[in-house]
User: Fold these one by one.
Assistant:
Number 1:
Amino acid sequence: MERKKQKQAPTFEKQYQEELYYAGKQFYKTLFIIVVLAIILYLTHFLSKGFTVLFAFIGIIMLMATLTYSIGHFVRYLIFKAKGK
């Protein structure tokens, strides 16, 4: 059997390009979490209110963590862009 080639990490000339890349990646993760959370909440509201509240709480925590990373990378992008690094 052939081994799969490992993905090469992207390389960037400037540090602000790297921060923008990771900010975008986190933003797409945020959108994915929102869509999955909406589907889960829609399905669980038929089962019980307790499950809906539980999944809503877990989803909000995950969403806040992902948004924090996304905003952090974007702020770093703005800082490095201003410095020209």
Number 2:
Amino acid sequence: MHAKNFPEGGKQLGAHPSHALRDVHQKANEAWPEVVGEYEDEYPETPWFSLGAGDFEMVVESTDRYNVRLFAGHRLVATDCIETLWAALVRVMAAQGFSLRGV
């Protein structure tokens, strides 16, 4: 959850948001492998992955910001900071009864 968990700590959206989102996908896959979908980058400007957590089916994406959306379309998180995105995912997953593993 701290900057040291990401190689370039404090990544703001801009230079290579898809690389930062790929880092989050890898960490999420290590933490909750049974509920993390494949990283999708068919359209490099909008990479994303799915995350299923109890009652929540979510999409984690990078557009002009990092977003976490419910499949129903409601936005849970919108941020420019990758650490904020990761912290929000940890909180949402904990609220659904998922603990961190291997991270």
Number 3:
Amino acid sequence: MQTQEDKLYLNALFEYQAAFPGIQPPAPTWFVKWLIEYDSKALSDTIQTLQRHPKKPLFTTESTGRAISALLRDGAIRAAAQKLVRP
């Protein structure tokens, strides 16, 4: 029986593979870290954003991993800043 965490990981992995066919996904530890630090919706939105990037043909496993991490951090910082502006 799969846990909720297993399902979230597999969903993220399948979404990554669909978005970047032919590119090896980052190590499972990356996905686990992303799912612990950010919600699954944020990860899904980030993968979809990168999927539409004009330089997608140049992407590698490392570049997608770094880009996903950077976009997730940026989104978290923006959300925190909005909370400070709007009490």
Number 4:
Amino acid sequence: MKQIIFAVCLVFITAATCFAWDPSGTWAIEGRTDTKMDISCKENACSLKMQTKYGKYDASGFVNGDKLLVAYNYLTETSFGFILFEQQGNNSMLQKTFDIKGKVVWNGRLFRK
């Protein structure tokens, strides 16, 4: 009986990992046409490149459940911080950008292109 329960638990753990959120792809900020964000993930580690009319930045981070947390470096200014993306369905996510003191400096919604 213990082996059957163990096998069932193993199947659920494996299935949950197989269906985890994968934010890989091209994203854009809702309501703006000047943004392009490319996210590529391998397992739970991700890298991000974003271009807007205001500048470019690179970031790297990790997926945990329905969230992606990255540390970014704004390449056109001397600026860096953290971004938290939260899955909102298959084709959209919320973004919160934090400065290094933890203050939210931008909120927005992104959609998959």
